[in-house]
Write a structure and sequence with these properties.
The structure is a homodimer. Chain A has about 130 residues and is α+β, with helices and mostly antiparallel strands. Chain A has a 3-stranded mixed sheet with strand order 4-3-5. In chain A, strands 1-2 form a two-stranded antiparallel ribbon. In chain A, helix 2 packs across helix 3. The structure holds a DNA duplex (25 and 25 nucleotides).
Chain lengths: ~130, ~130
Amino acid sequence: MQKYSRQREAIKNFLAARHDHPAAETIYLNIREEFPNISLGTVYRNLALLSEMGEIRKISIGSGPERYDGNIQPHYHFICKCCGSVLDLGIRGMDHIDILAGQNFDGEIEGHNAYFYGTCPACVAR
Amino acid sequence: MQKYSRQREAIKNFLAARHDHPAAETIYLNIREEFPNISLGTVYRNLALLSEMGEIRKISIGSGPERYDGNIQPHYHFICKCCGSVLDLGIRGMDHIDILAGQNFDGEIEGHNAYFYGTCPACVAR
DNA sequence: CTGCATGCAAAAACTTTGCACCGCC
DNA sequence: GGCGGTGCAAAGTTTTTGCATGCAG
């Protein structure tokens, strides 16, 4: 059975309040303001636990450290090639792609991971 | 200017002949049969070069080491949660998703990365 | 009390890099 | 011969893990 932990709670709350998809290191540095003794190991352990429990989402962006998202509603991400930021995209009508993918495939498709890349609004303006 | 290198050629040919999307380590172990003195560093350097030149494709599968694909034709991948194998999927009609993604977004979408996951035919049978 | 969670540090896993030497052009 | 490529090893980056101690149930 799992026990309550203030550290885990703090990590979860921190992620719920952010929308910039921070990496473990960033989370660590921020949580440390509330728990000066917390260790990076604990942050990683709790991020793994929370994402297994489905309370947060782990997102791989192709290079660099993994990012974490407190928003577990289905949505997609956009990665700016220019500044590296990770933005949320609200895309509708993409549920069918699993079916599309399964059409000439004998295995069982459960789902997919996808992200888009390009130049974000801020970098386009610059 | 870039020079010819037998090692790079061998890596490229090796990838062209495989369809299982090997990791750098696997490529290294195999190329070593032809070039017993080749180093892992050289393998990584050439994989980076080849993928920058667009002669091979680097594919991130969410966890573990990066995989490499000698097939540069546009196609998608399927990752088996059971055995970890990476299979090719021939999916048609997914080009529109970049447009879909750009509909409520002010940045510029260049493209996307996506992979599907589930249970592969071999693991379903088992 | 019992056992999961933590802090700390060491280690693992993966990839990159500095440097002297080698070999393509 | 000049310069990019290689081999080797060291180091960098990100993540995991062992262990003694702490704290929730």
